[in-house]
Amino acid sequence: MNINSNLNQLIQIFSFQIKEIIQNHPNNNNLIEIILDVGRRPEGRFSFGPDYLAVKVISWQDLEYITKRISKFSDDNRAGIERTLHRVSCIRNRQGIIIGLTCRVGRSVVGTINIIRDLLESGNSLLVLGKPGVGKTTVIREISRVLSDEIRKRVVIVDTSNEIAGNSDVPHAGIGRARRMQVSFTQNQHDIMIEAVQNHMPEVIIVDEIGTELEALAARTIAERGVQLVGTAHGNSLDSLIKNPTLIDLIGGIQTVTLSDEEARRRKTQKSILERKTFPGFQIAIEINSTNYWVIHENVAHSIDILLANKYLPIQRRSIIEKTRIKIDYAINSSVSSFDYKSYSLLTAKNYQWNNLMKSHIPDNQRLSHLFNPTYKKKNQKIKLFLFLNLNISMVNKFKQTCESLKLTKIDIIITKDIDQANIILTSKLSIITSRKFRLIVRKKKLLIYTVNSSTIINLTKTIKHIADSYCAVILIINSKKLSY
């Protein structure tokens, strides 16, 4: 990757004391932003953590010195430096006077999107998700350069805060041949998005920080007009986007559907369920967890359906190894069932707890689990199965006799209370709901769970026979705390 930060142009706006410290700092290449608050010491935030830059505290004169050397602040309290990608944000008091500045270092990184080059060439709309400061703006800046220069498409950037193409009427070279439309007021961003489609015939529109319902609606409108859309939004994952009522239209929206009794039995769900309203405006979603580790959803509609169905979600993970090699692997997302059904008033409190606990359960589709996680089940693997059930001594003895009659010779039974030895849990739904400590242990250790409706000998034997057929040996650990003598 080729990184161009133009750090010297940012340093020039500071007083001599801070300027000299930053220039001589051994880790100035890892500088992310500089924090200046009145009455406090100046602080530099690096990729490895924060560090004070001086002993002297910041005064009003220091802030005035800086604000005279940058552009005027817009209605979102952001300003920039001419012909650079640096951003300066201010904090004001109740009287509107500036009492703090956040100076973020803007970098143009060439080669950062090699990890998703195939997705850009597909022509599908992309949604980039990530927490603030993870590098979403840097990514879409490089996307605009690749789409306009290398793939040779007509690209228009809706640049609300001038972060993508810099704070100048002449766009920064980091966007390539793409054109940039500036937005005078942040609340008008959705109007400029529609105007870009109507007036300038783009093949691709790039929007940074989609954050309101009107912008989400405009994004859907653009996608339905046949224009490829690349946008960013704050959120760690698709799961967090589902919980965001403001941006839910980006992924098709959610509606409550009441099923018939027959359909509910066929699906093995409740009668009231959540379903996606329509097709999402974005076909592909990219979760940026770090600079070199991304999670890809190549079919957003399918992923949303799986999340709403409370099932395990297969995800694609891409990472950069040794700066040039790209590693792609697949896994089952273990946190797909954390959707907050309670906010939609669909379930009772008890069912709400149960659905949140399903995140540790095995997938309904076993073949899908094997496809994306081949190590999930091995014929030569020895399984230690922990029974968290209300059993007594007589039931354990009957269970031993039943196993012997069915010739389940691969099962060894021990009685203990040590759950650390187990890698699979067998319990009932009621036991999970009523035991908070057990729920915390399962979540922390990320154990797989089999459930039975009731602690009868028949249900217990059928379940363990199914498990025993899949592994070379099963060590059955019976919870001694549950035994009543």
From TrEMBL:
Task: List, alphabetically, the InterPro entries matched.
Answer: AAA+_ATPase, P-loop_NTPase, PTPase_dom, Spore_III_AA_AAA+_ATPase
CDD domains with a match to the protein in the record: AAA (cd00009)
Q: Does the keyword Oxidoreductase apply?
A: no
Q: Which Gene3D superfamilies match?
A: P-loop containing nucleotide triphosphate hydrolases
Which residues belong to any copy of the AAA+ ATPase domain? 122-278
Keywords per UniProt = ATP-binding, Chloroplast, Nucleotide-binding, Plastid
Any idea what this protein is called? Answer: Ycf45
An example Gene Ontology molecular-function term: ATP binding
Does the keyword tRNA processing feature in the UniProt annotation? no
